[in-house]
Amino acid sequence: MSDNWGRKRQILALLSSGQFVSGEQLATELGISRAAVNKHIDALETYGVAIYSVKGRGYKLANPISLIDASRLVQSIDNRCFYFDEIASTNGFMLSHTTELKNGDVCVAEYQSAGRGRRGRTWVSPYGHHLYFSLFWTFPQGMAQAMGLSLVVACTLVEVLKSFGVENIGVKWPNDIYLDNKKLAGILIEMSGQADSQCQLIIGVGVNMAMSEEQGKGIDQPWSDLSDLVDMPDKTALVIELQKQLKRDIQLFEREGLAAFKARWQAADLFYGREIRLLMGEKSVEGICRGVDEQGAVLLETADGVQAFIGGEISLRAR
Questions:
Q1: Prediction pTM value
Q2: Confidence (pLDDT) at 281
Q3: How many of the other CB atoms lie within 10 Å of CB of 28?
Q4: Catalytic amino acids?
Q5: According to the annotation, is 57 in a ligand binding site?
């Protein structure tokens, strides 16, 4: 960790008390000048950290921040862990180092300057507020072997979040996680190598933990976070459990395919048994959602029978 980020993390720790802390106190605690304190505060705000500033009282965090305990993370995971205060993209970092990685290696960051979501969307990534996580895996038989993997990852994420006390969550096909019918988390799987032989997959996961009001304005759909929970999950513990459960589930998927996850998927599927509309570009199809098949295609019961639909440009809407 650079001295620059070390200072900022010290400031954040002091501001996490829930009380206002004066600039003089911050300067004294850190052994730096008031001007240096102001410089660090301004920099944190450019990274998306919302800080209340009240003349005569000092500074206070507007939203809770949970930072990774890097030493505990490294000690608790058997694989290699890459941890950054800031990075362009955890997925991008892993994609640029595929020849050096082993199954289960992870990259975690507190801030992404170019976080990515599905369909080229930006994933809003303010410093310390959320979880930005990527895991590496190799499939020797190519993308065909990985068909349906994104649904498996969604099942994993739901199970892990539930183990931390998150209720009222479910999945919108193919892999968006919703809390109280608003998007809580997303999954982006990217590939390098060959589609029909060995390929390397980067499984990216983003979970909203404590979105600031200002950052939320930049999101073009209803969103949720974990800030209303009585006990906010410890982010380090969440990463550790997510990595371990992903390894178990991907290994099960390699042995038994998506069939091993159909019951878990059905239990988490927000649209199962409901009337929905599938949007495919300018076309749409209506029917009753009947879950997914063993390739991960969504099944729709229509007047013509049960049909399977799959593709990156398909969207589901409740009728």
A1: 0.90
A2: 82
A3: 12
A4: 118, 183, 317
A5: no
